[in-house]
């Protein structure tokens, strides 16, 4: 419980990954938490953890209820036990971006359903040769978006080659390698669902390097509605998720939980939205877009440039 002798103090736990300080996901969650911290007159500490050593996520100082009033987990890398450990110590907790069956508090989006909507939209546009660049499957977001891709294809009785499933880990360099594998294959896909916008931009850049046009030769959909999309040569169709709201609600509800004023367990699923832009083309069912000559330099989509392998991002 919160002591009256000091300001409420909460901890935001973020698993460390490549180039975390340029991460859209981490930045939006921190921004949402900060909005609530100001309103609540509370202190929020950011604790960046080692993803390879979950035992070190929660040390004794972090678990001391005399100084810390609650923990928000920005992700848990599929390790529910680390949350249960905090609960056993009597620490109020909220987990973000994970849907859990256990009686554990969470605020999330339905990543699987959102991914299914993406693939079903592509199917509705006539595509059957649909590939994916999946995210980091050590995270629930990565797993569920891949499951949604697969389940949508199964639902519509569409079989795809095994090499249509590639992995980009939500990062630029692996996504670029995955894109090259897909687009250089003999039976390349007509559409690709990338599980993050950062990976989608890498895919589009590789397509351009291979003289393929988006969307005429390749339809692309991302996930996040990341502001980095302004660098895209073609307006990217993507999925918007309310990350700032997720962080804000996580802090607001954790404050109430720490005061014993919240009905538990807290289970909130926020809506996503498919944002339809210019990176998907409709094709005749059962057919493939016909490759065309590359456009003159400087006339590709809305601009001349495309993203390159400059750092990474998560989710």
Describe the 3D structure.
The chain has 315 residues and is of the alpha/beta class. The chain has two domains: 9-109 and 242-271, Response regulator (Rossmann fold); 111-240, Rossmann fold (3-Layer(aba) Sandwich). 31% of the residues lie in helices and 16% in strands. The chain is built from seven helices and twelve strands. It has helices at 24-40, 80-88, 111-124, 140-155, 172-183, 197-209, 243-258; strands at 9-15, 43-49, 70-73, 93-96, 106-109, 130-134, 165-167, 191-194, 219-221, 238-240, 267-270, 273-275. The strands form three sheets. The chain has a six-stranded parallel β-sheet, sandwiched between helices. Helix 3 packs parallel to helix 4 (140-155) and helix 5 crosses helix 6 (197-209). It is elongated and about 65 Å long. The model is unreliable at 290-311 (pLDDT under 50).
- Tell me the number of strands: 12
The CATH class of the largest domain is: Alpha Beta
Shape, principal axes of CA atoms: elongated
Largest sheet: 6 strands, parallel
Which value, in Å, is the CA radius of gyration?
Answer: 21 Å
Uncertain regions spanning at least 5 consecutive residues: 290-311
Tell me what portion of residues adopts beta-strand conformation. Answer: 15-25%
**Elements, N to C (H/E):** EHEEHEEHEHEHEHEEHEE
**How many domains, as an integer?**
2
CATH superfamily of the largest domain: Response regulator
Distance N to C terminus: 33 Å
Instruction: Record the strand order, biggest sheet.
Output: 2-1-3-4-5-11
Mean pLDDT: 89
Oligomer: single chain
Structural class estimated from helices and strands = alpha/beta
DSSP helix count?
7
As a percent range, the share of helical residues equals: 25-40%
């Amino acid at each position: 419980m919160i002591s009256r002798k000091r300001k409420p103090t909460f901890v935001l736990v973020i698993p460390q990954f490549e180039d975390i300080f340029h991460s859209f996901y981490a930045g939006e969650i921190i921004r949402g938490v900060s909005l609530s911290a100001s309103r609540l007159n509370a202190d929020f500490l950011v604790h960046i953890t080692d993803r390879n050593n979950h035992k070190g996520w929660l040390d004794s100082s972090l678990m001391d209820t005399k100084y810390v009033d609650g923990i928000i987990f920005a992700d848990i890398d599929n390790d529910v036990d680390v949350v249960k450990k905090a609960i056993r110590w009597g620490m109020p907790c909220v987990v973000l971006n994970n849907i859990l069956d256990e009686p554990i508090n969470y605020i999330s989006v339905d990543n699987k359903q959102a991914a299914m909507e993406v693939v079903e939209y592509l199917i509705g546009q006539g595509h059957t040769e649909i590939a994916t660049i999946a995210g980091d499957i050590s995270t629930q977001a990565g797993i569920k978006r891949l499951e949604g891709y697969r389940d949508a294809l199964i639902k519509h009785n569409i079989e795809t080659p095994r090499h249509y499933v590639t992995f980009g880990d939500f990062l630029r360099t692996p996504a670029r390698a995955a894109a090259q594998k897909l687009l250089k294959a003999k039976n390349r896909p007509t559409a690709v669902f990338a599980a993050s916008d950062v990976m989608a931009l890498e895919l589009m850049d590789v397509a351009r390097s291979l003289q393929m046009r988006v969307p005429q030769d390749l339809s692309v959909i991302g996930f996040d509605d990341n502001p980095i999309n302004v660098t895209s040569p073609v307006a990217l169709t993507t999925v918007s998720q309310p990350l700032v709201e997720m962080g804000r609600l996580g802090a607001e509800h954790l404050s109430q939980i720490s005061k014993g004023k919240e009905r538990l367990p807290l289970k909130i699923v926020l809506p996503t939205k498919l944002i339809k832009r210019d990176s998907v083309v409709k094709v005749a069912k059962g057919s493939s877009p016909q490759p065309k000559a590359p456009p003159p330099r400087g006339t590709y989509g809305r601009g001349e440039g495309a993203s390159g392998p400059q750092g990474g991002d998560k989710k």
